[in-house]
Design a protein that fits this description.
The structure holds two protein chains of two kinds. Chain A folds into three domains: about 1-145, no CATH class; about 205-475, MetI-like fold, CATH 1.10.3720; about 500-720, MetI-like fold, CATH 1.10.3720.10. Helix content of chain A is about 70%, strand content about 0%. Chain A has helices spanning about 1-15, 30-35, 40-50, 55-70, 75-100, 115, 125-145, 150-180, 190-195, 200, 215-245, 250-255, 265-275, 280-290, 300-325, 330-335, 340-370, 375-380, 385-395, 400-425, 445-475, 490-495, 510-540, 545-555, 560-570, 580-605, 610-620, 625-635, 635-650, 655-660, 670-675, 680-720, and strands at about 180-185, 185, 475-480, 485, 495-500, 505. Chain A starts with a helix and ends with a helix. Chain B has eight helices and 20 strands. The radius of gyration of chain B is 25 Å and the shape is elongated. Classes of the chains: A mainly alpha, B alpha+beta. The interface of A and B includes residues 717 and 720 of A. Chain B: One of its GO terms (molecular function) is ATP hydrolysis activity.
Chain lengths: ~725, ~350
């Protein structure tokens, strides 16, 4: 293990002496920094510019080297190395945070001198290599002290993931907190509370005949309504799906896939085409009944309507599992105790589902709060937090401090729901499925319940179908509501190709390719980080595992808009300057979709008997070999699923991305937002349709790959485990 | 394959805690090289934890573990020369049988051809020569178990660990495979630690049995010692069937304890027991049922079950209900029959309350 530390020491020292420490203007891969002879390494910075504080990492690594060769007793050596490397890590990070050129300067008085006051650029490749080397030296040393069963690979992986989550989740969120205390010319603690509890946020005027309520109250009200609505609709669908002999169950199943591949504005746009002032339904109603054409859609009801359509499938998906989780023998027991079907449902099944229903409710609540696309398109005068944050950043009166306050309000709402879900629902689970085989049949629904379900769900399913077909029609119609003649115009404008010159003339190509590229880079990374985390959570025991799991799941509770705002606040300045690059887009996708990868990984990992990796380890393989030769091959399908899912999520994501795109790196969804804001619905819808087709292709390809693999691999796992 | 360089195992005050739960209280353990020792006990007694501590799959919270005289307390499972056969076999489903057996050799850095040769030899040893190209799922349960054994022994481990290796096999196959495992262990002179909760299995394969209860050792010894001289009511009941009859020891002289069951006086040697209440261990095979006229403990048969080779009775007596096993060719009694219960002095053992 001493060799591994020596290798990292060499890498780290090379990072400090051979590579440019700071961000280089042309980027690393341009290699401009090679040509000018003196790479601006930490060493030259210290010697020539006088940035003496960069000595910290070099000093730490040299001391570790001395300790490695000088101290004989292994545990003492490991402990010393750990402390020195950690100190080097902390000091290097601190100097980056404290001595900055721009952005929040909290401790600028700490360092005197002109050089320090002038600040420094953001970390570059050299700093990155040095920091990672120090991190791994620390983790390897930690494992040598006997922690983590002495497994350097596992401890290093934990260290790396913790560091990544800290830098890309906690650090940006911390920036929001700091900005929220910002007042012109400094920071103030006392200013925060009056601003946070402003009536613009929490006002209840609308209840007492006033104009409108505060933004936070609006968001809260909308979220409660949406959560209740989607839970009821989802339950109706789930009951039909699992407890009746309804013929078109396969069609219902399609409903569960739809939200995954729906770009965020599609439902809003389709609703405008149907119920807007010149929408089809509005026109017909005006003709038949002489009703007035109004703009009722733009406001609370429109957003509510769109959110119900968007999130009911998610509730459906969750509740299928919940309804199926009620053990048939419980219901049979109830029936043999001479309860009829209604009593069984009312007194046994429904109470057993209660935690599951609460879970679906909280999910809907969080989704509604975080939703950005629907309020942006349909919100009108009904202000909600997620869109107000956006306007506070990009609007004419840009006010980052206000955005930070709004973000904190939104974050506190979603986090409370997230915590409630974990601590309250998590503990009160009545999952009645055990390892025991449970034969028997679930009770059918009583006629009344069945009728209610059909009456709720079927019209809704029909409406969903109509809404989605509008997307196809809408993209081929010249100008909806005025000129319904058939046209390919929108497609040629967006995706035109001049075949004579071979040039792509469509306006959408740029963002389309950027989207595909960035999504395909981010997807495997997301899957990797997610599965690695899942491996640690399922298969390894270590101190602080609960906190580790909690922090990796936390980014699920952080709404996209908040992430977006926090990223531009944190990564616009040194030490980590990423705005305007494609890296920031990739990073935001990886850490936003990470919980999805983790969940998928945990599910897949739990199906692999842990004795498989224990067998590998007792046969003399280390955990890295075990992962490579046993776990990864068996996780193939899960890996592919995670990759596709992150790919699709990256394509449809808008809320975080919209803050982070640049002229050079524009994404499909933010391009569509631009079209919608200009009222060019045709192109927006045509583009959405192309995206849907793209994602469907990706999913089908995956199904093809996984479908054939599953026959070979998972079957074998099961037989081996069972026999 | 020649004899393996077998290692001894030593636990010195080993403690294992999982959070607030203590899975092992200060365990001292000595397993000689070449010995097959069984860890036996009810579920949750700490036997599997002990095995996993030897393997390095768990780290001791306190104490010292030695394998082959070397301190391995802080070594990872990877670097210990120990291999393990799992309850679920844990054969890698994506590798062929030969690849499974060769896995430990190749990750250890052996060349592929040599590893394949050794793997083939290992398969031969468990009677599966020629099965190398198959997938684990194409083998029966018993064959999979033998592949798992082959995979473990080709590494020539200092200690072979077996975690309930037979519990997934049906009763008849179980006997066959356990004999095979014992044979291979003796032929190679392996040190083996075997975990099971089945006392019959433990009696059949072990040189020595360590019975565990509540995270500590209840008694250790050869199968015969445990059966004949249990040191507690728990052991008496756990190893073989036993009737535990409460008795009052009225006199102790020269290690001889005197007491009464029913109307008869008994005396037996047990240095550990003092005058006062204790329990007598009566093995059901050593109790005879006679005609009621005979001079013995009067009783009444309350249940009789005919099992072919033997008949099992429950007899209600003044000393409590007794479980009795009689040979089937002896005179049969019916439910409700009055009988005289006869217990020979030599068949009675005493254990403390």
């Amino acid at each position: 293990m001493r060799q591994t530390i020596a290798l990292w020491l060499l890498a780290g020292l090379a990072g400090c002496t051979l590579l440019p420490w700071y961000m280089t203007s042309g980027g690393f891969w341009s290699f401009e920094w090679v040509g000018d002879g003196t790479p601006d390494s930490a060493l030259t910075q210290i010697v020539q510019v006088g940035r003496w504080w960069l000595i910290a990492p070099i000093l730490a690594m040299l001391t570790v080297a001395i300790v490695q060769f000088g101290v004989v007793e292994p545990v003492r050596r490991a402990k010393l190395s750990l402390w020195i490397a950690s100190a080097g890590l902390v000091l290097t990070a601190l100097q980056g945070l404290v001595i900055v050129r721009a952005g929040p300067r909290l401790f600028e008085g700490l360092f005197g001198g002109e050089v320090a006051a002038a600040g420094q650029p953001g970390f570059g490749i050299g700093a990155g290599v040095a920091l990672i080397s120090l991190l791994f030296i620390a983790t390897i040393s930690l494992s040598q002290t006997g922690r983590g069963r002495g497994d350097a690979f596992v401890v290093s992986m934990i260290g790396l993931i913790v560091a990544l989550v800290a830098v890309f989740v906690f650090y940006p969120v911390a920036h929001i907190l700091i900005r929220a205390f910002e007042i012109p010319g400094g920071y103030s603690l006392t200013q925060f509370f009056p601003r946070f509890f402003d009536s613009g946020l929490w006002g209840l005027d609308c209840l007492f005949g006033g104009q409108s309520c505060g933004t936070a109250i609006n968001s809260l009200f909308l979220a409660l309504m949406t959560a209740a609505g989607t839970t009821i609709l989802g339950l109706a669908f789930a009951l039909i799906f699992t407890r009746t002999d309804f013929r078109a169950k396969k069609l219902l199943r399609v409903l569960t896939v739809i939200p995954i591949i729906t770009p965020p504005f599609v439902i809003g746009l389709a609703l405008i085409l149907l119920f807007g002032r010149s929408g089809t339904v509005t026109e017909i109603a005006a003709e038949l009944f002489g009703t007035e054409k109004t703009r009722w859609l733009y406001g609370f009801w429109g957003v509510y309507f769109a959110q119900l359509l968007s999130f009911t499938p998610i509730a459906f998906l969750v509740l299928i599992g919940v309804v199926q989780g009620v053990s048939p023998s419980m219901e049979e027991a109830s029936q043999t105790l001479s309860a009829d079907r209604w009593q069984t449902f009312r007194r046994v099944s429904l109470p057993l589902m209660r935690p599951g229903l609460a879970n679906a409710f909280l999910l809907g609540f969080i989704e509604s709060l975080a939703d950005f696309g629907n309020p942006l398109v349909l919100g009108g005068g009904y202000n909600v937090l997620s869109t107000d944050i956006y306007f506070a950043i990009v609007g004419s009166a840009a006010d980052p401090a206000k955005a930070a306050i709004l973000a904190i309000a939104l974050l506190s709402l979603t986090l409370s729901a997230f915590l409630a879900q974990r601590w309250w629902v998590g503990r009160k689970s009545y999952a009645t499925i055990t390892g025991k085989a449970d034969s028997g049949q679930n009770a059918g629904l009583s006629p009344v319940v069945k009728a209610i379900c059909y009456w709720i769900a079927l019209p809704w399913a029909a409406l969903t179908a109509v809404v989605y077909s509008m997307i196809i029609f809408g993209s081929f119609v010249k100008l909806w509501g005025y000129d319904h003649s058939f046209t390919f115009d929108h497609y040629t404008r967006a995706f035109g190709i001049d075949f004579t010159s071979g040039r792509l003339t469509g306006v959408a190509w740029d963002s389309y390719f950027t989207t595909l590229t960035i999504s395909s880079i981010a997807a495997p990374l997301t899957a990797l980080v997610g599965l690695a985390t899942a491996y640690l959570l399922v298969r390894q025991k270590f101190v602080g595992k609960d906190a580790f799991e909690f922090s990796t799941m936390l980014s699920f509770a952080i709404p996209g808009t908040v992430i977006g705002v926090s990223y531009i606040m944190a990564f616009n300045f040194p030490p980590i300057e990423l705005t305007g690059t494609s890296i920031i887009l990739i990073v935001v996708f990886v850490f936003r979709n990470m919980p999805v990868g983790v969940r998928g990984g945990i599910a897949a990992m739990s199906q692999l008997d842990s004795s498989l990796d224990e067998a590998s380890v007792t046969l003399g393989a280390n955990s890295f070999t075990t992962v490579r030769r046993v776990i990864l091959p068996l996780m193939g399908p899960a890996l592919f699923a995670a990759i596709t899912y992150s790919f699709v999520r990256a394509i449809t994501s808008v809320s975080a991305v919209i803050f982070l795109v640049s002229a050079k790196h524009n994404m499909a969804t933010s391009f569509i937002v631009g079209r919608v804001e200009n009222g060019e619905f045709g192109i927006a819808i045509a583009y959405s349709a192309v995206l849907i087709v793209t994602m469907l292709t990706a999913i089908l390809l995956l199904q093809l790959i996984i479908g054939t693999r599953r026959l070979r691999r998972t079957d074998r796992v099961q037989t081996a485990a069972r026999a | 394959m020649t004899k393996i360089n077998a290692g001894s195992v030593r636990f010195d005050g080993v403690v294992k805690r999982f959070g607030d739960v203590t899975a092992l209280k200060r365990l001292d353990l000595d397993i000689a090289a070449g010995e097959l020792v069984t860890l036996l006990g009810p579920s949750g007694c700490g036997k599997t934890t002990t095995l996993r501590l030897i393997a390095g799959l768990e780290t001791a919270s306190d104490g010292r573990i030695e394998i082959g005289g070397e301190d391995v307390t802080h070594l990872t499972a990877t670097s210990r020369k120990v291999s393990m056969v799992f309850q679920s076999y844990a054969l890698f489903p994506h590798m062929s049988v030969a690849q499974n057996v060769a896995y430990g050799l190749t990750v250890g850095g052996m060349r592929k051809t040599e590893a394949a040769q050794k793997a083939e030899h290992g398969l031969e040893m468990v009677g599966l020569a020629g099965y190398g190209e198959r997938l684990p799922s194409e083998l029966s349960g018993g064959q999979q178990q033998r592949v798992a054994v082959a995979r473990a022994i080709v590494l020539e481990p200092e200690v072979l660990l077996l975690d309930e290796p037979l519990s997934n096999l049906d009763a008849k196959l179980r006997r066959h495979v356990r004999e095979e495992i014992r044979q291979i262990q003796q032929r190679l002179g392996l040190t083996a630690v075997y975990v099971t909760h089945d006392q019959e299995e433990a009696m059949a394969v072990s040189d020595r049995i360590i019975v565990m209860r509540n995270a500590e050792i209840a008694q250790a010894g050869s199968p015969k010692e445990l059966y004949d001289c249990p040191n507690s009511a728990f052991i008496a009941d756990f190893i073989g069937d036993a009737n535990l009859v409460p008795v009052e020891i009225d006199r102790v002289d020269d290690g001889q304890c005197h007491f009464t069951i029913g109307n008869r006086r008994y005396s037996t040697t047990n240095a550990l027991i003092q005058a006062g209440p204790a329990q007598a261990v009566l093995r059901p095979q050593s109790i005879n049922l006679d005609n009621p006229q005979m001079d013995g403990l009067p009783g009444e048969v309350t249940a009789a079950a005919y099992l072919g080779r033997e008949i099992q009775y429950t007899v209600e007596t003044s000393a409590g209900p007794l479980f009795v096993i009689a040979e089937a060719n002896a005179r049969a009694h019916k439910r409700g029959d009055a009988v005289s219960v006869n217990i020979a002095n030599e068949a009675v053992r005493l254990v403390a309350n």
